[in-house]
TrEMBL record:
Protein name (record): histidine kinase
Coiled coil: none
Residue ranges crossing the lipid bilayer per the database entry: 311-329
Uppermost EC category: transferase
């Protein structure tokens, strides 16, 4: 059963693939405009769809540049064009001729590409020599049945084509404007593809008596006059992306097309024949030195700009306006940037001043404790110095050793007082961060010492708790000490405001991990009154006389240490708050884990 289902599934998938048609695009040179090219060649596409199963052919009309670009981008797989463009493309992309067109109006001739040089009937121009220094109109510099065939004739006549004419105006397609330019006197002569003159007469667009063809000739069996040699007719070519089997089917279908088939009648041909020799075109191109190069693309751009001046002027105008606008935006941006930099500088200066005020506020709040700390060493110094003086005045030389001991105690107490003053000055003085190896344990002890009197006055116990193996960190000692004092002082204030029934407690817990240390300041106050983000915002305070800078400064200092700072309520079921500071171990490159 499973094998049967699998076979059915594969059969369905294969059938769906077989049922899909392959979309194929045929580029067609549109001498008379894209719409006329579609009307002419669409029946041929429908004929190929009938003859080659599983295909869906479409007409892709365009001029030389459009078809060259379409072939380069892979938008077309086939092309119907003159041998000139084929040789140009074949120098860049592998192409192969499938069949050559047999012209319907020339008894099936396979060499039916040439040029007719047309002037006004009333003009004095009789030969090509009379056009020296004159203004000429042509369709395209790469048009074999037009400008290139005429240049080939000039070379045979010994003329230097590059400087022979005063100006050559390439008007592109369709071809009607070429003769209109002659009619209106804008040019002296027009170089047109074979039968363009007769076609416009048949369509009633011009009067035959108003024009004359230079160097006229009418080959046997031809309906049109020609001024140059004739070259091989248009051919059907395929790119290398086309499967060989598909190319064979298309070639066979083209060869089997009869002259009376509606597709052949609409395409103005008597059918297709095997590709004929392109030797004449190759020799012509050799004389003209035609090469596939980037210069041809530049010439196309130059010609487009030449004959579309209004668009070129508009583009230049837009470019100039855009340039002026860009410069104005740059000027305004420069002004705004300078203003922003100045504002940022002022804000930074104000932040420094406010931070200094915050430090001064902290020192003012713990002033009594500092006075007590300093008073003790000063009293000891006074007592020891008086005892030493009394002994020296009594002439007790035998007690020299005890006197030296007193002097050492005096020195120790004076050093202690100096350290206290130094700590106070460090907190008040704003300076750049200086990173050094710091023992975080000593900083915690110093913080507890500075807040000792404050905690005793409010009957709050501050304790230290250590977990893990201690290590040094790289930090700014003064800045980190300010953070610890801020957080501990906030905890003391929160406990005092809550007025708990039990004794107030602040625990500074240090958790040493592998690559970082977490410092937690835990209190049993009332906890956070608002969200942590709001509390840490600048100028936000819950104190009547607070500046709202403490936590903001703490956050900034911790960020300078590449650490992390957070503020949360306790999660152990007790009231209170937990301030957590995470700092890197000395030498660690890993980011701290929150």
């Amino acid at each position: 059963m499973y094998r049967t289902l699998l076979c059915l599934l594969l059969l369905c998938c294969t059938s769906s693939v077989w049922g899909q048609t392959q979309a194929l695009y045929v580029g067609v040179l549109s001498n008379w405009g894209n719409q006329q090219a579609i009307e002419r060649w669409q029946p041929m596409m429908e004929y190929l769809n009938e003859q080659v199963p599983g295909t869906d052919f479409h007409v892709y009309p365009g001029n030389f540049e459009a078809l060259n670009l379409a072939m380069e981008l892979g938008q077309i797989q086939f092309i119907i064009t003159n041998p000139g463009q084929y040789l140009y493309l074949s120098n860049q992309y592998p192409l192969s001729w499938l069949a050559t067109m047999r012209s319907a109006r020339h008894n099936g001739a396979t060499s039916a590409i040439g040029s007719a040089i047309i002037v006004k009937a009333e003009s004095d121009y009789r030969t090509l020599y009379d056009l020296k220094g004159k203004v000429i109109a042509a369709s395209d510099p790469h048009a074999l049945g037009g400008y290139q065939a005429t240049v080939g004739l000039m070379h045979k006549l010994g003329m230097e084509s590059e400087n022979y004419f005063k100006e050559v105006k390439f008007l592109g397609f369709p071809l009607d404007p070429l003769l209109y330019q002659v009619r209106d006197g804008n040019v002296d002569a027009a170089i047109t593809p074979l039968c363009t003159f007769e076609d416009m007469i048949a369509r009633g667009l011009i009067n035959k008596a108003d024009y004359r063809i230079l160097n006229p000739s009418r080959p046997d069996g031809f309906d049109c006059q020609c001024s140059t040699n004739l070259y091989p007719n248009w051919s059907f070519a395929a790119s290398e992306s086309v499967d060989i089997g598909l190319s064979k089917q298309i070639t066979q279908a083209l060869m089997e097309l009869t002259a009376d088939h509606p597709a052949a009648i609409k395409a103005l041909l008597m059918g297709w024949t095997s590709p004929i020799s392109q030797l004449a075109v190759i020799q012509l191109f050799g004389e003209l030195h035609v090469h596939a190069s980037d210069g041809s693309r530049w010439e196309s751009v130059e010609n487009w700009l030449k004959y579309n001046r209004h668009w070129g002027i508009f583009a230049i105008f837009v470019f100039l306006v855009a340039t002026v606008y860009h410069l104005w935006i740059e000027y305004r941006f420069h002004q705004k940037s300078e203003s922003l930099i100045a504002t940022e500088r002022q804000l930074k200066q104000q932040a420094i001043a406010l931070e200094k005020l915050q430090s001064a506020s902290i020192i003012g709040e713990i002033g009594a404790g500092l006075a007590h700390e300093i008073n003790q060493p000063i009293a000891a110094i006074t007592s020891y110095s008086e005892g030493g003086i009394m002994r020296l005045e009594g002439g007790q030389a035998q007690e020299c050793a005890s006197t030296v001991e007193l002097l050492q105690k005096i020195h120790s107490q004076s050093t202690r007082a100096g350290e206290v003053v130094h700590r106070i000055r460090s907190l008040l003085k704003r300076r750049e961060s200086v990173m050094s190896d710091v023992n975080i344990l000593s900083l915690v002890d110093e913080c507890i010492s500075l807040l000792k009197l404050e905690s005793q006055r409010r009957d709050i116990q501050i304790t230290k708790r250590i977990k893990g193996e201690p290590f040094f960190i790289s930090a700014d000692r003064v800045g980190l000490l300010q953070v610890l004092i801020n957080l501990t002082k906030n905890s003391i204030d929160a406990i005092a405001e809550a007025q708990p029934a039990t004794e107030g407690k602040v625990v500074i817990e240090l958790v040493f991990k592998e690559f970082q240390v977490d410092v937690l300041v835990i209190d049993n106050g009332s906890g956070l009154v608002q969200s942590a983000d709001s509390v840490m915002a600048t100028f936000f305070t819950t104190k009547e006389d607070g500046l709202g800078l403490g936590l903001a400064i703490c956050n900034e200092v911790v960020n300078e240490h590449d650490g992390a700072f957070s503020l949360n309520d306790r999660v152990d079921g007790q009231a209170g708050c937990v301030a957590k500071v995470s700092l890197k171990k000395r030498g660690s490159e890993r980011s701290v884990e929150v």
